[in-house]
Queue: 2 jobs
Job 1
Amino acid sequence: MKPAPFKYIAATSLDQALALKAEHGDEAKFLAGGQSLIPAMNFRLARPTILIDINGIEPLCGVRTSEAATRVGPLTRYRALQRDAAFVGLFPLIGEALPHIAHPQIRNRGTIGGNLSHADPASELPAIAVALRARLHVQSAKRARSVAAADFFVSALTTDLGADEMLTGIELPLHGPRTGSCFMEVARRRGDFAIVGLAAQVTLNENQACSDIRLSLCGVGETPVDASTAASIMIGHSPAEEMFRDVAASVQTMIEPSGSVHATADYQRHLAGVLTERALRTAHQRAHNER
Ligand SMILES: Cc1cc2nc3c(=O)[nH]c(=O)nc-3n(C[C@H](O)[C@H](O)[C@H](O)COP(=O)(O)OP(=O)(O)OC[C@H]3O[C@@H](n4cnc5c(N)ncnc54)[C@H](O)[C@@H]3O)c2cc1C
């Protein structure tokens, strides 16, 4: 299939891209890696009349780390993140998830900002952004604001972004010592979207009791599912097998998977329980080893 006719503009600055978006609103779409947008246009599921190519806007690329947080530019490609040992060392949860996203060719082009803005419910990074308490920086020609990842994903393929706004930065708070994480997913084939994916991050205090727990799932709802409250029964305790089982049972009751051609809703619910137990066990073990 070929896309419907559109006008292409290669923006050379953030100001120009935002001015164009303010002028054309929903008629215009930013082009980042093109790995979701172009297939959607080819299938005529998306028919923007104007494509604003943001690939030439250098300040939107790269990773900058300060004392409290790391800020990732939206145009940073999956491959660049995978190859950044310092970044993967700071955020092993992302490092563990990246190889699950699509295939090498797609990871060479796809960007973190395009991924989060596209907001596919089965996508790994939105669930991880929620688990890591990311803040998403958003800008229009008129104003800048930031929103918690948990509030950014509104429904399937829909975010909190306004018609004139761009995602301009992903801020990831640094975690404390004795923190371990784990990402796991089940997909039909390597590189497919997740049937169920799960991100867990456990922090222990000096007495090895759980002081913070984050748990988030993809593929089992319209948006990433933040199951951290269900896992909060671990707080103050030295995590043990019965607790992992109890959290898994709570997760199974709180999610509402829709099922698909690849898996029934019951199977997804079963997987969510199994992955919860396994990921919590692994994250806890890793936290324990991180003295
Ligand atoms: C075969 C195949 C398998 C795939 N498997 C997976 C998978 O397993 N997991 C997964 O997560 N993804 C998967 N993807 C999707 C891939 O990860 C895309 O790269 C990603 O969803 C979109 O990123 P992009 O940079 O390519 O964005 P684009 O395709 O360029 O843009 C996507 C959308 O985001 C908007 N956008 C882009 N950047 C911004 C910004 N900075 N601010 C506001 N809006 C913006 C665009 O206007 C567009 O609406 C797969 C894709 C293919 C083709």
Job 2
Amino acid sequence: MIPGSFGYHRPTSVEEAVNLLAQFGDDGRPLAGGHSLIPMMKLRLAAPAHLVDLAAIANLKDIRADGSDIVIGAMTTQHELIGSELLSTKVPILREASLLIADPQVRYVGTVGGNAANGDPGNDMPAIMMCLGATYHVAGKGKRERRVAARDFYKGAYVTALEPGEILTAVRVPVPPDGHGFAYEKLKRKVGDYATAAAAVVLVMSRGKVANCSIGLTNVADTPLWAREAGRILTGSELEEATVKQAIAAAEAITSPASDARGPARYRTKRAGVMLARALARAKERAGDSNPGDSKQGRGLWQSLGLR
Ligand SMILES: Cc1cc2nc3c(=O)[nH]c(=O)nc-3n(C[C@H](O)[C@H](O)[C@H](O)COP(=O)(O)OP(=O)(O)OC[C@H]3O[C@@H](n4cnc5c(N)ncnc54)[C@H](O)[C@@H]3O)c2cc1C
């Protein structure tokens, strides 16, 4: 399939990009890696008259520490996330999840910003970002940069908190405490597929008990989900079977997947529960037990996870 004709623009600064997008209005669309947008254009599900390619904007492409956060430029590719020493050490769930996205060819060009801004419930990064308590930096013409919590960003399938002409410039991730446990479990039909259901877990253990736990779910509703109640149920527990079952029931209760080629709705809901059980077990196995509630960093995570 061949997309309709379109104008191609390659700004070299964020200001130039948002000016172009403001000028084109509904006819313009930002282009990042193109691995979601171009297939949509080929299928004629999207037909923007102008593409504003963000690839030549140098400062959208870096990964840097900023106090207790890591800031990832929107045009950082999934391949670069996987290769980042800083992320592997500080926020290893990002590497684990990126390795489960598509295949190396897609990951060489697909970007963290495109994945997060796309609004497709099948994208993996949104639930991870919700789980981590990340914040998105957003720029628009004539506006001061604003920040939107990932947990407030997703409004419906392909509907986000981005206003017309705005772009996501960076993702800010609070660094979880050293020794935190993490896991991303994704069920897919074959290598390279989107999730039938997936679960992200970040937890901190203290004296044998869960000091805090944050859970994100992928592709089991119109939007990615933050399973707040399930995390709350687990907090203070030793992850004993009965409590885990209760948390899984709470997580399943907030899902509302479509019945589609990946399976009937009920099956996908139950698979989300299974993915969560596996992610919890693996996160617990990986977690050190450092009594983080007493540390400054631990308190920071409690705040960032919204679980104080
Ligand atoms: C075969 C295949 C398998 C895939 N499997 C998976 C998978 O398993 N999991 C997964 O998560 N993804 C998967 N993807 C999607 C892939 O990860 C995409 O690269 C990603 O979803 C979008 O990133 P992109 O940089 O390519 O964005 P683009 O395709 O360029 O853009 C996607 C959308 O976001 C908008 N956009 C892009 N950047 C910005 C920005 N900075 N600010 C505002 N809006 C922006 C665009 O206008 C467009 O609407 C797959 C893709 C393919 C082709």
